[in-house]
User: What shape does this take?
Amino acid sequence: MSDVSLHNVSKVFDNFVAVNDVSLEIKNGEFMVIVGPSGCGKTTTLRMIAGLEDISSGTIKIGEKVVNNIPPKDRDIAMVFQNYALYPHMTVFENMAFGLKLRKYPKDKIKSLVEDTAKMLGIEAYLSRKPKALSGGQRQRVAVGRAIVRNPKVFLFDEPLSNLDAKLRVTTRAELKSLQHKLQTTSIYVTHDQAEAMTLGDRICVMHNGNIQQTAPPMDVYDRPVNRFVAGFLGTPPMNFFEGVVIFKNDRPYILIESETIALPARFKAALIAYNDKPIVLGVRPESLTPIQINGLNENSITATVKVIEPLGDRMDVYFETKSQHKLIANTDPHLKLKVEQKLPLYINTEKVHIFEPGETGKNILER
Assistant: This one.
């Protein structure tokens, strides 16, 4: 096992900056998830760690060794790809043993390592099969097993669950988390799926346009996003955003949204005093927006009309539209009786709101 360090790493393709001056420290034994939308630079970052892409500038270290000019085979890493990358003409045993044979392991040692790993992954019954005779989930286990038998310093995962169906993705990510906890090998996992990021990572690194936006434990990123992009990217359904203006009345902060005045907790005063009479963006997660009157929430509401109702069993997602045609989403009790085109007040839990400066990556004013 080893730490992995990236210091001021950049990657430029012609005139396009894919990764911009990224610095990231992954601790020994940590499961780090790099997450972001397509084209954000996350896979390029992983490929530079693997040695599959040359870096344009900066330094990458695995353990104490700078690996900038070391070929992939000598970095002591194992990579699991999105498309499994299994040899179709080889059996499961041969696929898992291939890397060990290249390293001239004794036959009895190879047999022992492959069989023990296959048993751990529940694929011991498939060792004599070829990949075409396996399901997608079984092939993914083989790809993971091929990485495990090598006992590398670092595991690299490039969206390994994206080809699986929804149910299998959920079960496989739980198995991956359990496996990493057991092995305690430093792991770097790339995905665009925020649910994978939240459930798998000891920490998550959110990227956008080649830049790291925030790196922290999953719930820290969810509860305390540093900017509007991070806040909007993490969360299903996504955070609601309202454009408004900060005002003060009797030394208390308020936000004017459309024709509504939203009273904010007095503790926000210090952070908002510099934004008096300035435009801001109010962020409210769907679970903090409700059509039900709750003690303490009756002071702040926005009138909206029900447009779409989505029952999901444990909750109901309701899509609303304000009189200015601003669209909102609220999580509600699945047994709440609502009707499409019904107009009602939506109450805001202002203890849970976020306030951002304008712009796609406007900073979170309350998280300085």
About this structure: The two ends are 35 Å apart (CA to CA). The domain at 4-233 is CATH 3.40.50.300 (Rossmann fold). The mean pLDDT is 92. DSSP finds nine helices and 20 strands in the chain.
